[in-house]
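Annex B. Sample input.
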Amino acid sequence: MLKSDPKIIRPPWLLAGGALLFWGLSTGNLIVAIFLAILLEGCRFVKLRWDFDENAHVKAFQFSILLMALWVALSWIEDEGRAGSLNVIRWLPLIAFPVEFVQRYGKLDRMNLNAFFYFSRRRMNIDRKEGKEVHPIQVNSGYPYILGVLTAAASVKEGADYYWPILCLFIVLVLFSVLRQRGLRWVSSLWLIPGIMLLSWGLQWSMSTVYVWAKSRLEWGMLRSTSSGFLNDWHSHLSELGSVRLNPKIEWRLWSEKAPDYLRVASFNSYNDGRWTYNFKADGFESLDDAYLANPPIELDGEAGGVTYFRPEDSSLVLKDRTSDKVFIRGTITHNQVSTVVPTVGDFYAVSNMLGDDVYAEASPMGALRFVNREMLIDYTLWSNEEHQSLEGRPKNDLDLEESKSDADVIARLADELELKRGESSEEVIGRVVSHFSKNFEYGTEFDNGGYDGEQSQLEWFLTDLKKGHCEYFATATTLLLREAGIPARYCVGYAGVERGSDCWNVRGTNAHAWTRAYVNGRWMNVDATPPDWRGVTEEGVQLDPVEWLREQISLMREDFFMWRRDEANTQKLLFRGSILASLLILWIVFRLWRNRSRSLETYVYANSWSGETVRSPLLGLEKRAKIFIGGRKRGEPFGAWLSQLADLDFVDAELVERAIRCHQSLRFDNDGDESELKAIVKELKKQLRKR
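Annex B, continued. Sample output.
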């Protein structure tokens, strides 16, 4: 084994093992931590070593990268979303273990720093081929590994009472260990302890904060990257005219006999200044959650996971169990909220087969359906009946006929222009409104609007000047015009139009839509005044490049795989096959290590040792202290020549060093030196080194 270079510092015994146990207690992975600690600290007692060279260091690092990639993939498959990849931080001790194992059980106490950098390593290899002399920076991975372990332990959101003091203790131990190996007096560094305590607290706080922040940012970014960002059941803002970009990503998949015309996510009954809301307080509720309790869910156990319906009179429909009225829906909601609204079809009255152990459904008086305690992957079955009375219930005139405060004048003028009169046939009013927008307006999402001057509302600008826009403006205008004519109406958001997939109906972000629900002849009905050519405009954008298409296919396969794995029989098969593959891989690694093992840890000592009778010189007791200042002996380097480097130190008496070496050589090889004199010299030299 090569002696240590003075620049190479290695952690003392049990420091890494203690840090691993601390990590295990903090993250709940104590068994894994004990196993790793035994393997790493066991190198102190086991003489087995391997001739790990530069290539072995690179392969160990590549294996760690593979473990990281597998962990990210498992987080993704396990329904944790992209934010689940942040959990990799908590498993840094296991991910970086191959590198530390190669370091501890190799015959070298260092590795090239460029083992972790491909281009730097490639440059070095090119220089070697060209015959150039290279001097790569070398490090020992011990302290970086311990720092990674403490970082992983600091990533917990809320630590126990013992957490911060133990983190302080480990940082103190690391610092004093480094100072000692650098030959510095640790007593003079006690003043650093307050700073260390502050650093420990800052490390834990910053890691927890960064973890939560990064996770929320990732989830918010994913939420904004899809057009399903409007999946909100109490408010909706009108987007800026001419600047709407729809995402062609498949957001939902449906399995049904025929494609539904509309998938409704939410309805709103109050409008003001470009913002629709569900006025639950005017509806008699203190909060939105109270509104969902207006129709308390009723659960009926069944063979396929149970059925939830919301009104006692619907029990007869549930018991009929007509398959033709069922729609199976699957999609992914990436935000981390406990509850989320989901699309519904037609006049649904029940839901079943909801994915999740603790998930349950709630329905609001506006007909919105939400899942509580849901998983990221959403999978459920809707029960609907065309003859069923909608869960929306009867309208309330003070809400569903409420006029806009911000756009009342322009709506009144347009109603007069269209000769919309109260008491007129609802069908005639609706037909006149739809015809007006179809003939005189144009649909568009991305276009040059000429610049908004702000002197009028965007809705007025749309109705009087621009006469071009997207569905939100057509639906808003239609809802307010119908109310002006005395027809109860609500603004709805969701999806309209689907495309045929291989075995299902695909609902893309480009199918996002807004329309009106009007109460006509005792029933709520859909009214869509957006010009019919909007479907063609949105379908033109559904052209995916190869990369987007591949990402979409992978996402769909992930959803299907997750559902396949939910089956217990399939899970058992997967675990069995995965265990076999993992066992074979571990056995192969163990076999390769065992075959290439070596017990030559101290071979070079015997090859360069005196074989005859030896005398124990007192000067040998100075070796441990001298190593701190001049580094370890190189292979084959004489003890006297190595120790003479102490004479170059300013705080050591050079003449005393020379006398000690002469006395040592006389004692060992001539057997006529004065041992008592040498002991006195060694004592003085130790005193000089200790003062430093």
